[in-house]
Design brief:
Elements: E1 22-28, H1 43-55, E2 60-64, H2 77-93, E3 98-101, H3 105-113, E4 118-121, H4 131-138, E5 142-145, H5 165-182, E6 190-193, H6 202-210, H7 213-216, E7 223-224, H8 230-235, H9 249-261, E8 266-269, H10 272-295
Helix pairs in contact: 1-2, 2-3, 3-4, 9-10
The chain binds pterin-6-yl-methyl-monophosphate.
Length: 296
């Protein structure tokens, strides 16, 4: 866990440079996301929530209109556009750094026109062949997440089988990064994300978390999104009852601490304040231990 922050945190064009791990707050404009589905479905509520996340310390706000919860069906593009674009526009107009969580080039394009600064594609460009060329043309940063299949199928056994989950995920992620570079996206605009919970069992998520250096070693900014996910609910289960999603906040912030200590560029979270506090604790400790090492 130590040593990660001795690597400089990479900055990324168009996103805040804070000298610490950034906090990306989540606004899911969906009826069915696993932890906050239906809560921010109308534009005004979603925008107010995004602004509240910023007040609570989010550096970026990630707006999505399609649930990727295991088993979820896809929404049509018109619905996704109608959910996402007005929220992106209002937040960007208010000066918020917005990322758009979408697998569709058309949604990304309209969100960028509306003021989004970053595209977060959980499929890493695999779901829509037009995505990587679009991102390359737009000159914006993109999150390339490890992805094997759409939500309806991603937890089926054939998609959660690995020889070694960490090396396989890293290699598959590298191949997706290569595809982005081949499409014209420069490496200094690429963020990688191992995709906790996407085609991964609870045990596999823990293996990823236990070996984060395999991903920071790729030399690209790393995003981690553990917030409220099922594997935390399983960890904290009592008598086989999962801890409810809205009671996984402390565990989510604990993962933020691990991610920040490993040198992650950003964490994607539903509640900004606990993670905003955690990244500051880690950054302060890193600053002081750097000074002490320098003095010694
Ligand atoms: N997870 C979800 C949605 N978007 N984006 C990235 N980059 N990484 C993730 O792990 C990720 C994501 C699913 O969680 P949600 O339904 O709470 O948004």
């Amino acid at each position: 866990m130590t040593g990660g922050l001795s690597r400089a945190l990479p900055g990324l064009a168009g996103t805040p440079a804070a000298g610490r791990t950034l906090v990306m707050g989540v606004v899911n404009v969906t009826p069915d996301s696993f932890s906050d589905g239906g809560r921010w479905l109308d534009v005004d509520t979603a925008v107010a929530h995004g602004l509240a996340l910023v007040d609570d310390g989010a550096d970026l706000v990630d707006v999505g209109g399609e649930s990727t919860r295991p088993g979820a069906d896809r929404v049509d593009v018109g619905t996704e556009l109608a959910r996402v674009v007005p929220v992106v526009r209002a937040l960007a107009d208010a000066g918020v750094a917005v990322s758009v969580d979408t697998m569709r080039a058309e949604v990304a394009e309209q969100a960028l026109t509306a003021g989004a600064a970053l595209v977060n594609d959980v499929s890493g460009g695999r779901a829509d062949p037009a995505m990587l060329p679009l991102v390359a043309d737009a000159g914006v940063p993109v999150v390339i997440m490890h992805w094997r299949a759409h939500a309806a199928a991603m937890q089926q056994a054939d998609h959660t089988t690995y020889r070694d989950v960490v090396t396989d995920v890293r290699d598959e992620l590298s191949a997706q990064v290569d595809a982005a570079v081949a499409a014209g996206v420069p490496t200094d605009r690429i963020v990688v994300d191992p995709g906790l919970g996407f085609s991964k069992t609870g045990a596999q998520n823990w293996e990823v978390l236990a070996r984060l250096e395999a991903f920071t070693d790729l030399g690209l900014p790393l995003l981690l999104a553990a917030s409220r996910k099922r594997f935390l609910g399983e960890l904290l289960a009592v008598d086989g009852e999962l801890r409810p999603t809205d009671e996984r906040e402390d565990a989510s912030a604990a993962v933020t601490t691990l991610a920040a200590a490993a040198g992650a560029w950003a964490v994607r979270v539903h509640a900004a304040r606990p993670s905003a506090d955690a990244v500051r604790v880690v950054a302060r400790r890193a600053t002081v231990s750097g000074r002490l090492e320098g003095a010694g």
